[in-house]
Design goal:
alpha/beta, 204 residues, 39% helix, 7 helices
């Protein structure tokens, strides 16, 4: 059994929808899956005032909060984020910045890691946020898993990003196009495939 952790931050639900689709895709493909959220670092801050934020937080409070132990457990990891000025959300980066000990000790070495993102506008930074997360994955010594242009779902009108699944939600937080959800599920299956190969090569 290959272990997959889907770790995401979401303030109003869009990235959560992608994460759910990824987790379901990996589970259907035979993985042991943990769907994990990143906690707010400022519960009364700006993120809490966004439209739909309070309802989303209430609806997802039973989802476990990600820990460093979850990273150690996982053979493959998917990281999900909303776009913040073209970068990953500070909440997710706060978690990533806590991983130095694992990275230095080689405990993230050769894990298969992929990233996905959501944003309000087309060309609003989804790709740059994903690529910024690739920087962290490289420092971990993990294997970056992209979607590539390798499946028909990636050629649909609302997809096309070869770096990782992404969604444009406009003024409709939590309303993610079905094509994007299917791309996230494909990305999870691809991450599972690479993680399974790496696990075998490492003798884990």
């Amino acid at each position: 059994m290959t272990n997959i952790a889907v770790i995401y931050y979401s303030s109003t639900g869009s990235t959560h929808k992608l994460a759910e689709a990824a987790a379901t895709g990996a589970e259907k493909a035979g993985a042991e899956v943990r769907l994990l959220r990143i906690a707010e670092i400022a519960p009364n801050g700006e993120a809490a005032s966004r439209e739909g934020a309070a309802g989303h937080q209430d609806a997802t409070q039973d989802i476990p909060v990600a820990t460093l132990a979850d990273l150690e457990w996982a053979d493959g990891i998917l990281l999900g984020t909303p776009v913040h000025f073209g970068l990953a959300a500070p909440q997710l980066m706060h978690f990533i910045n806590s991983t130095s000990k694992l990275s230095i000790e080689g405990k993230l070495l050769n894990k298969a890691v992929s990233a996905f993102a959501s944003g309000s506008a087309a060309h609003g930074g989804q790709v740059s946020a994903i690529l910024a997360l690739h920087n962290a994955i490289t420092h971990w010594g993990s294997v970056v898993v992209s979607t590539g242009s390798t499946d028909p779902i990636l050629y649909t009108a609302k997809n096309g990003n070869p770096y990782g699944a992404s969604a444009v939600v406009g003024g409709n937080p939590g309303q993610v196009p079905e094509e994007n959800l299917e791309a996230a599920a494909f990305q999870a299956r691809r991450t599972l495939e690479v993680a399974s190969v790496m696990k075998t090569l490492d003798g884990r």
